[in-house]
Each structure stands twice: as C-alpha cells, then as structure tokens.
Amino acid sequence: MGLDDKLENAKDRATGRAKEAAGAATDDERLRAEGQTRQSEADVKDAGEKVKDAAEKVGDAFRR
Fold first, then answer.
1. Domain coordinates in residue numbering, the chain
2. Rounded Cα–Cα distance for residues 23 and 39 (Å)
3. Is the full-model pTM beyond 0.90?
4. Could you say which of 26, 39, 51, 56 is the most buried, measured as most Cβ atoms within 10 Å of its Cβ?
C-alpha cells in the first residue's frame, strides 16, 4: 500500500470520526451515519490494499 493511499484512508477515517461526533453532539442521525459510513469505507479500502500487497508478495515468492 502506497503512502498516498494510507494518507487518503487516514483522512477519510478522521473525517468520518468528526462527522460521527458532530452528529452525536447535534443529535443528527444522518450526519452520524454518514460519519460511520466514511470510516467503514476507509477500513474496506485498507483491507483491499492489504490483500493486494499480500498477493504481490505471493507472486514475488513464486518468481524467485
């Protein structure tokens, strides 16, 4: 996973946390849900990148 991807996912996760907190503070369920969704999307992107990295390592092992 590249540094750019990690930073983008961290930014999305932080934005999601902020939206979720703002929704909780203002009792806005839509904003809270939007924040939770943003965090989940960042987690899924991280997982996808980890799978891609692992597949590359497996491929590298077979090329040796």
1. 3-63
2. 14
3. no
4. 39
